[in-house]
From TrEMBL:
PROSITE patterns: CBM6. It comes from Amycolatopsis sacchari. This is CBM6 domain-containing protein. Keywords: Signal. GO terms for molecular function: carbohydrate binding. GO terms for biological process: carbohydrate metabolic process.
Length: 681
């Protein structure tokens, strides 16, 4: 869960975690060598800068930062944990795998990219009952337990591991049986639906009043509220539906009795029917978020619920088209719940309300790709890539209107209203982006028979190649050419193959080439240049020059920021959406791509607006295209960080149409600045 005040805050264990995370725990036995991580290569430099950078950061997040040692005493209660293989933690500030995080991260990406760690992570949240039966660990997070089933079935499809499948089926069957026989939350036979908190909203900020009240007086968590515990919510019931479908798939694959398979399929069909009967709202063209025990409906939007309806096939084709047409997105992505509850606002969005969690963005983008919605998929993927690139990686939560790192607000009674932090290095934020690329852009679909492809390559992105993709016993290079969703040609090692897929039995190194057609040619960033001709797509709201941001004024929040630099709004007087802070330690940097009207070599001047409330002048290193130009100084402005000044540096050598100007905190610099914008003349 992403909510508890205890157990998931950073503390004395931080140094230990940092040390553990410095090691990449490799698949297989202890001491084995990990194969190279995949690489994503776009022919377009602008696509590479936007999506390629974010992809590398996401891989680093999953495979290095958040892969840690597995403590067998703490995580080995299933008897299936391999102590020589690492596990995947939830992220910065959260030192455990957690059931829901473990499941989502495995499903999103880890089962493909790091299968040994993914399996170990799934077993790390499993224990045994008094009789020795395997079950997902029992707590008050019933939705966490159930999503594990979908992650386990996906892990089998990716790896083909029958031993894992046998243990996973026993775990899943016992866990779902526990849930079926529980009281509250449990199964409500009058509605044919499961009760209990929604899949993602473990905080009461994710619920309107009722079941909450205006001051959130009972609890900041969701389950202590009777209306939540006894209510029925869209995403949770969809997760149960997927669990039944996947239990039937597991049972069938293992050759279990036909009645067992049929029983799960019948339960899935009945639950799907109940979801459509009670949640579908013909008036709004969407599924409602909730049905309370007294029959009260909540015609609100739930991002994960809408995504699951598409991904799990709960919506029929007409409903799916309606969802895509009517779903409301915020400027920076699909929100968790929407719109603002009365007790929140755009100025103070709730932690789980009208705010953007990348996990939700990833599910929504994957659902859009599945529907062939090229422009909408492109926009959602670009938003998360920009959020990651502008904030030194993948954070927990962002403001949906500004894109600024923001943990959201919460109430605690009449007088207390507090502002949460947003934690860095969140694994499921990174794996959300990895899923956008693998399952969305490349359209990967894992089956018993093999790996099928249904790519969605938007106009303007350019050709793209994924190298070093390890699938079972094969090492694949997958290249997409053209644009669109219709496959004109699919070849494996130069030979056409049917089904647009590679067999599960494939071994060794192979190359897949896919030629696509049918791209739409819209203008998704609304800069007056069509997607196919846009040299710099996906920069909404920025003054454009030939489709690119005007170098005469570039907001610092649109730069590529690394080393801890992130957006912030906790001081006044800045322009644009936010300013940058985090230029406080060596390794921090901000890079601005200057899109010039000419490719000729020459010199220019750079003006920067900044804040420096230190007692002295501060220095940074200025580089162009990776070559150091000189150390530059930023005089003290004021004793207030709300005051801003400007400084101009002349004789900056540039060449080519897109030079990259970088300010970095290097050895010998003093840093400790905030940045607002850069202008190139």
């Amino acid at each position: 869960m992403k909510y508890r005040l205890t157990g998931r805050r950073r503390g004395a264990v931080a140094a230990l975690i940092t040390a553990l995370c410095a090691t990449v725990f490799t698949p297989g036995a202890s001491g084995s060598t990990a194969p190279p991580a995949p690489s994503l290569e776009f022919a377009s430099p602008d696509s590479q800068a936007l999506y390629g950078n974010a992809y590398r950061a996401a891989l680093d997040n999953l495979l290095r930062t958040n892969t840690i040692a597995a403590d067998p005493v703490r995580y080995g209660k299933s008897g299936l944990l391999d102590p020589d293989v690492g596990i995947i933690r939830a992220g910065g500030g959260y030192d455990q795998p957690w059931t829901r995080d473990a499941s989502v991260n495995s499903w999103n990406a880890a089962s493909l990219l790091s299968p040994a760690q993914a399996e170990n992570t799934l077993w790390s949240v499993v224990d045994k009952d008094a009789a020795g039966n395997l079950r997902v660990q029992q707590d008050d997070q019933q939705w966490d337990q159930v999503i594990w089933v979908t992650a386990a079935w996906n892990h089998y499809l990716v790896t083909g591991d029958r031993t894992f499948l046998d243990n996973a089926y026993r775990t899943a069957a016992d866990t779902v049986a526990i849930r079926e026989h529980s009281a509250a939350p449990g199964f409500n036979p009058g509605y044919g639906l499961f009760t209990g908190a929604s899949f993602f909203n473990d905080g009461i900020a994710g619920y309107p009043a009722p079941p909450a009240d205006a001051t959130e007086s009972v609890s900041t968590g969701s389950m202590p509220w009777p209306g939540v515990a006894n209510g029925m919510f869209l995403s949770t019931n969809e997760v149960y539906y997927a669990a039944y479908v996947n239990l039937a798939n597991m049972a069938e694959r293992l050759g279990r009795p036909g009645g067992e398979v049929a029983g799960y399929r019948a339960k899935a069909a009945a639950l799907k029917s109940a979801i459509n009967r009670h949640f579908w709202n013909q008036r709004t063209g969407l599924y409602d978020y909730m049905v309370l025990a007294d029959g009260t409906h909540g015609a609100y939007q739930e991002g994960t619920g809408l995504a699951f309806a598409l991904l799990f096939g709960i919506a029929n084709p007409a409903q799916a088209r309606s969802i895509v047409s009517h779903a409301a997105e915020m400027p920076w992505g699909m929100p968790d719940t929407y719109p603002n509850w009365a007790r929140y606002s755009d100025e103070q969005p709730g932690r789980h309300n009208a705010i953007v969690w990348p996990l939700v963005q990833g599910l929504w983008a994957k659902a859009l790709a599945q529907q062939g919605e090229q422009d909408a998929f492109a926009s959602e993927t670009a938003r998360l890539a920009k959020l990651a690139n502008s904030n030194s990686g993948f954070w927990e939560i962002y403001n949906g209107n500004t894109g600024v790192v923001d943990g959201g607000w919460q109430r605690l009674g009449d007088t207390v209203k507090f502002h949460w932090g947003s934690e860095p290095d969140q694994t499921w934020s990174a794996t959300a982006f990895l899923s956008m690329i693998h399952n969305g852009l490349f359209g990967m679909d894992f089956t018993d028979a093999g790996l099928a492809f249904s790519p969605v390559l938007p106009a303007g992105w350019g050709d793209v190649t994924l190298r070093n993709l390890h699938y079972r016993d094969a090492d694949l290079t997958v290249a997409l050419h053209g644009a669109g969703t219709r496959i004109r040609s699919f070849t494996l090692d130069g030979r056409r193959v049917p089904g647009n897929s590679v067999p599960a039995s494939l071994r060794g190194e192979h190359t897949v080439n896919i030629v696509l057609t049918g791209a739409t040619n819209g203008d998704r960033d609304d800069d007056g240049v069509t997607d196919a001709r846009d040299a710099c797509p996906d920069t909404p709201g920025v003054a454009a020059l030939r489709g690119c941001p005007d170098p005469a004024h570039i907001e610092a929040e649109d730069a590529l920021n690394t080393g801890g630099v992130k957006t912030n709004v906790n001081h006044t007087g800045y322009s644009g959406r936010a300013f940058l802070d985090g230029l406080w330690a060596q390794g921090a940097s901000s890079s601005f791509t200057v899109h010039r009207a000419t490719a000729a070599a020459g010199t220019g001047a750079i003006t920067l607006r900044y804040a420096n409330a230190n007692s002295d002048s501060r220095t940074m290193t200025l580089s162009v295209d990776g070559r150091k130009v000189r150390q530059v100084a930023f005089p003290r402005v004021s004793d207030s960080w709300d005051a801003w000044g400007t400084v101009t540096f002349g004789d900056i050598p540039v060449s080519g149409p897109n030079p990259v100007v970088t300010l970095s905190y290097e050895s010998g610099d003093t840093g400790a600045l905030n940045l607002d914008w850069l202008e190139f003349h």
